[in-house]
Amino acid sequence: MKPEMPKMNFIKGTAVKIGLAIFIIILILGPMSPWVIVPAGHRGVILQLGAVSGIMGEGFHFRIPMVQKIVVFNVQVKKSETSAAAASKDLQTISSKIALNYHVDPETVSRVFQQIGIDYESKVIDPAVQEAVKAITAKYTAEELITKRQQVALEIQDLLTTRLRKSDVIVDAFSIVNFEFSEEFNRAIESKQTAEQLALKAQRDLQRIKIEAEQKIAGAKAEAEALRIQKAEVTPELVRLREIEVQKVAVDKWDGKMPQVTGSGALPFINIGLGQ
Length: 276
Fold this sequence. Notes:
By secondary structure, this protein is α+β, with helices and mostly antiparallel strands. Helices cover 51% and strands 23% of the residues. Among the domains are: 16-74, no CATH class; 78-187, Band 7 domain (Tetrahydropterin Synthase, Chain A), CATH 3.30.479.30.
């Protein structure tokens, strides 16, 4: 029996060491650990015997095992995209997609955990977006939601900022990803745009025709004025001068032959050869 004693002692010693190692691991990493590490961008909510008693900042901290529990809470900027259905002032159905960047106030994270909990996004963010979108879109017609989109976005953001601040949630950025309208409304908008384009084309054509008519009238007036001026310049002296010029041309073209008599008792005919 004696040779088996060292073997039994070895087994017992090994078991003790393994148990001790497990205990140390549990002590370091498990709920019995006397310290905790809060990652960057987070806060640690201290629960002492189940009650919220404070906040831990980022880094390494000690705690009282079995008495204090630390809940790590994310206070980084987060993004939420929410689909919201609403009605415009003229009772058009509007489907919108809202993008919201926000974060929990690090100074009041314990109150958020105590009053709302970890799932504050579904409890606070989404309902607030739905309410804000419905409240603001009801003030505008569907067409105004398109033409005044930036103004609508600013009003929704202001309303969201006010409502979420009451829950210690801070809005960092807001945008309307898209507005979607009913098929009937889209067709009505397309028809209106087509009619406006046709009206604009007709107006431009009318303006072109008017300009062309004015140009023709101006041309006719100019031609008539030119004729009037030309007629005013024709004086008896000018007519006599033109006759003299014609006679001079006729003389210059005469070949020197005497007039020929075509018959007895007839007047002599002088052929001056015009045009030869």
